[in-house]
Amino acid sequence: MSALPTPADPSALLAGLQAGDPNALGAVYRAHASAMLRSIAAIVGDRATAEDVLHDVFVGLPEAMRHYRERGKFGAWLHAISVRRALSYLRKMKRRSHLGDEAAATVGRRAEAERLPDRLVVEAALAKLSPATRSVVVLRELDGWPYSDIADCLGISVGAAMTRHSRGLQQLRLLLKEDR
Amino acid sequence: MRPDPHGHLDERALLAALDADADDGLPAPHAAHLAVCTPCWLELEALRRTRRAVRALPEAPASPDLFARAMASRAAGRRVALETTSSGRRLRDALPWAAPLLLAASVALAVAVPKFLPVLGGTADSATVAAAPTPDRGVPLPAAPSPLARLGVAATSGRWEYRVTTPRANGAPNLFTFSLERSELQWIAVSEAFNGGDWISLDSTWLAVDFRALRQIEYRYRDEPAASIAPHRTVEIRSTDMIIRERGLPPDTSPIGLTSPPQPQIIRGIAALRVQLMRETLHLRWTRRFTELEPMTRRGGLPAPRRATVIGQERITVPVGTWDCWVTEIHTGRAIEHWWVRKQDGVIIRIRDGAQTDRREMVLIRQAVR
Question: What ipTM is given for this predicted complex?
Answer without folding.
Answer: 0.78
